[in-house]
Automatic annotation (TrEMBL):
Gene Ontology MF terms: RNA binding
Function summary: Functions as an U snRNP-specific nuclear import adapter. Involved in the trimethylguanosine (m3G)-cap-dependent nuclear import of U snRNPs. Binds specifically to the terminal m3G-cap U snRNAs.
The organism's place on the tree of life at top rank: Eukaryota
Annotated ranges, domain Snurportin-1 m3G cap-binding: 103-279
Family according to the record: Belongs to the snurportin family.
Source organism (scientific name): Gossypium raimondii
Subcellular location: Cytoplasm; Nucleus
An annotated GO BP: snRNA import into nucleus
Entry keyword set: Cytoplasm, Nucleus, RNA-binding, Transport
Name of protein: Snurportin-1
GO cellular component: cytoplasm; nucleus
């Protein structure tokens, strides 16, 4: 009889592909922040050294050398995004729609349970409605849907969001909120805060962004009932720690909007554009009416269908938004089918 394999009970469980990508995303975030801090320190030290080394009788030489410093200055990711926001407000037609269509942070479907779910994750019930960016600037407020098209153009109580009598605020004041517009009660439910009163939150963790979201939004008066200078009401969604009680509250709790699944956010995640494994979505028949496909009459067909897309790296993903990884084709199979 073969000897008993004593290593089997202690074998480490396999790590899922989504978990690996979560870990890589967090490592990449940490490295980017360290790089940005190092660049800032180098820039500051170089400017100070130039200033201290330049003789007082030759200010022209100092100016010349200082002019060369910005050429080597790499911009941080957040600073580049701030510049893009200001530039995008000047774009027109298809260009501005194309730009805004790439700015939202999109969740992946939850296909496994993340490590340290109770300690490192938030959960909240996603409102049903139209996902959009809301931007207030120069005395007006504009909401743009995921495809970049304008949903509403209106005055609001957000900073620089309306042309009120005492002025519309500083030219540098603007806000960017990640929202879902709930048609039934005409309310913008804010699920994330990207910029507030000119201060960028791209490089802030979700834990800090949600803290600011709840405190600043209420202070601004944007949660008040609609008025002449405030056409739509804004509201923050209740966010819970992803422990047993928080999951139960998000899944079964009563909210003033129709639910469309649960959203999970990693507390350490920065706001990044496009799909990310640090934000996950879960839907079933108890928390979403859109969990399965229906036909043109709104009836459920006897069989559900799925459309798969073959990517360049041989991975098969669904056509959902966000897509779900289905599997990976062997190179021999691809050669037999396509060649």
């Amino acid at each position: 009889m073969a000897p008993h394999d004593i290593r089997r009970p202690f074998k480490r469980a396999a790590i899922s592909d989504q978990q690996k990508r979560r870990e890589l995303s967090l490592l990449r975030q940490a490295q980017n922040r360290r790089d940005a801090q190092q660049q800032a320190r180098c820039l500051a030290s170089s400017i100070l050294s130039l200033q201290s080394a330049a003789p007082e009788s030759q200010p022209e030489q100092s100016d010349i050398e200082l002019e060369t410093v910005p050429e080597a200055e790499p911009e941080s990711e957040a600073f580049s995004k701030d510049l893009d926001v200001r530039q995008a407000s000047k774009l027109r037609g298809p260009e501005v729609r194309k730009w805004f269509a790439r700015q939202l942070m999109l969740p992946e479907w939850m296909i496994d349970v993340p490590d340290r779910l109770a300690q490192d994750w938030y959960v909240f019930a996603r409102p049903a409605g139209k996902r959009c960016f809301v931007v207030s600037s120069n005395g007006t407020t504009v909401s743009r849907q995921r495809n970049g098209s304008i949903l509403h153009h209106f005055p609001s109580a957000l900073p620089a969001g309306a042309k009120i009598r005492d002025g519309s605020g500083s030219a540098q004041s603007y806000c960017i909120l990640d929202c879902i517009f709930h048609e039934l009660d005409q309310t913008y439910y804010v699920i994330d805060m990207v910029c507030w009163n000119g201060y960028s939150l791209y490089d802030c963790t979700a834990e800090f962004r949600f803290y600011w979201l709840n405190s600043k939004l209420e202070e601004s008066g944007a949660c008040n009932a609609p008025s002449h200078y405030h056409k739509f009401r804004f509201s923050a969604v209740p966010v819970y720690n992803c422990d047993q009680s928080g999951l139960h509250a998000a899944y079964t709790g009563v909210v003033p909007y129709a639910k469309d699944g649960l959203l999970f956010y990693n507390k350490h995640a920065l706001y990044q554009t496009g799909n990310t494994p640090l934000a996950l979505v879960w839907k079933d028949e108890n928390c979403s009416q859109y969990v399965i496909d229906t036909d043109g009459k709104g009836e459920i067909p006897s069989q559900q269908q799925v459309v798969l897309e073959l990517q360049d790296d041989r991975k098969l993903v669904t056509s959902d938004d966000p897509p779900v990884l289905f599997g990976c084709l062997d190179g021999d199979i691809i050669e037999k089918v396509w060649f």
